[in-house]
Amino acid sequence: MSAGKRDIDELADEYVLGLLDAADYARVEADIETDSSLRAAVAASRDRFLALDLLAKPGHEPEGLWGRIAATLDDPKAGVPVVAAAGDGDPQTAIRTANDNPVAGWRLAALSGIAASLLLAVGLGWSLLLQPEPRVIAVLLDGAGEPQAIVEDFGNASARVMPLVDFEVPEGRTMQVWTLPSQELGPVSLGLLPRSQDMILDGPVLPQPKEAQLYEITIEQAGGSPTGRPTGPILVKGFAKMPR
Q: Is-above-0.90 flag for pTM?
C-alpha cells in the first residue's frame, strides 16, 4: 500500500481516525516524512475532525468485563441452563432437550440482535438525514488559548453551542452568545446560554456565516445585554472555519 495507490484524503482520514492496522499505520507514518501531499492531507483531516476530538469523552469498560467474557468463551457450559429430563426418563431425551433449548435461545438472541441492529441503523440514518450540516464551526478559546466551547452555525437562524467546561456564572447573570457577521452590522446576539449545556439557539436571520467570522460568549445581566451589544466580560472567543 502507498499513498499513490489510494485516495489520499481517504487514507488521511483513516490514519487520523485510527482505522488502519498496525502495518498500514507504520507505512503512513513513514510516508508523512517524505510525502508533502500526504502530510497536508493529514493536517487537513486533523483540522476537520477537531470538533470530534474536543467533544470525545474517554470511556472505560466495567471492571472485570473482559475476564467474564473470556471465562464464558473458555467454558462451553457457561450460561447453559440445566434442563430436567423428559417425562419418559430417557437420558438421551434429556440430552436432546438440554441441547435444543440453548440452541433455540441462541437463535432467538441472534434474531433479536439483528433486529435491534437494523432498528439502530435505521434510526441513525434518519437522524443523520434530518440533522443539517453546519456552515461553519468555531472553537472558542479562553485567555490562555484553551478550548472551552464549540459553536456550529447552520446558517438558518440557528446555532448549536457546546460548552466543553462548566462555566462559572455569577448569580443574577447569564451567558450570551454573539457573532460578528460584518463590521457594518456589528456584533449580533445569537441568544442566551443560561447554563453550561449543549443548546440550540434560535437567533435572528443573518447573512450566511463565513470563514474567520468571530464568535464569542460574554457574561451579561439576567435577561441579556440591555443595549443589544456585548457589555460584560468576554468568557471565550474564536473564529469560524468552514467544515471540509
A: no
Sign (positive or negative) of CA dihedral 231, 237, 240, 244:
negative
Question: Any residues with CB less than 8 A from the CB of 181 and at least 6 apart, and which?
Answer: 188, 206, 207, 209, 213
Sign of CA dihedral 145, 47, 56, 196: positive
Place of cell 454573539: 178
3-state secondary structure 97-153: HHHHHHHHHHHHHHHHHHHHHHHHHHHHHHHHHHCCCCCEEEEEECCCCCEEEEEEE
Q: Which residue has the cell 456585548?
A: 230
Reduced to 3 states, what is the DSSP secondary structure of residue 40?
Answer: helix
* Phi and psi based region of residue 219 (left: phi greater than 0; alpha: psi -120 to 50; beta: remaining): beta
Residues 216-237 have pLDDT tens digits of: 999 999 999 999 999 999 999 9
Which tens digit of pLDDT belongs to each residue from 171-205? Answer: 999 999 999 999 999 999 999 999 999 999 999 99
- Cβ-based neighbours of 232, under 8 Å, separated by 6 or more: 173, 176, 218, 219, 220, 221, 225
